[in-house]
Amino acid sequence: MSGQDVTRNSPQCRNCACEYNRLEEARFWSRIMQEHALFIKLGLPADQQELREEAQVLIDVFMELRRRLQRVSRLEGQLLEDLIRAVRAIIEFKAKILRDLIQCRAEPGSNYPLLLDHIRREAVRFINFLQRPVPQDPLSMLLEQEVFWLRIMKEHIEFIIHLLDPSERELINQAEELRRTFSRLLETARDLESMAETRPRTFNTVVRFTQDVISNTRALRDFKGAAFELAKLCELLGIVSSPLLLDHVRREADKFLNELNVLLPELRRCSSTLGQQDEIIHDEQMDEFFPIN
Asked: Is 20-134's fold the same as 135-283's?
């Protein structure tokens, strides 16, 4: 799988307001949903045939939707309705399996409850994009993305740790250090998002923080990519259901980086514009007190 699969034209920003390109988001997330259904199927016990068949139906549905999405230039009409219906179906499928596991009504197989909740949250986010695409200012959108994605990245690391064989000590140690880093970053992102509720005109700390997030996410992306290559070559010990799972989480890291690389320059540009406006206002106020003769 190549990095070319990552959405390149979303989010889109103009006049200090950013929003997601629904078509590009749909192309990216539909593949993610298809693979979620596959991973659930691979993790289900062999005797849960009905659930396995339901997962396969969802795989087929999203595969066909992906074909349709590649043939259009706008996401609207029947295609949008069909996509929303499919996402609702996979949300309920994930929730149903999670409910059964929480209530000890089914054997878990290799589907961790947190994994099911993780992919359910991603599907809920996707359907929100489809139903309510709301423009936001770059600061709000950037911090929202960081809080969401840093949690996703942290959980990816935790899943990888639990899927590696105990003998993979070096990889586990690397993953543990990454987990600690992303736990700290997530806590900070939540703090900054809360502070930003005061609607500051500029927030330079977020720029510095985001640069740190980009650096660490690149390191995590490379770690995932290396693990994927090892799995492809049968050089990785563990219970990873398919090398595709590691490529899947690598692509999500690339998606996060793509969003940061769009939003960070926009935040800088808009902050600079606001700063210039503040200087003009300040100069005009000074002129009122100290008029030039």
From this structure: yes
Compute φ and ψ for 9, nearest 5 degrees. Answer: -110, 30
The SS3 assignment for 11 reads: coil
- Number of DSSP helices (H) and strands (E) in the chain, helices first: 8, 2
- pLDDT, one tens digit per residue, over 208-265 is 999 999 999 999 999 999 999 999 999 999 999 999 999 999 999 999 999 999 999 9
Fold (topology level) of 135-283: Ferritin (1.20.1260)
**Cα–Cα distance for residue pair 62/272, rounded to 1 Å:** 43
pTM comes to 0.90
Which residue is associated with the tokens 């070319």?
A: 4
Which top CATH class is 20-134? mainly alpha
Q: Are 21 and 11 in contact (CB under 8 A)?
A: yes
**CA torsion through residues 177, 150, 87, 261, sign:** negative
On whether the CB atoms of residues 266 and 16 are closer than 8 A, the answer is yes
Q: How far apart are CA 284 and CA 258, in angstroms?
A: 40
**Cβ partners under 8 Å of residue 163, min gap 6:** 238, 239, 240
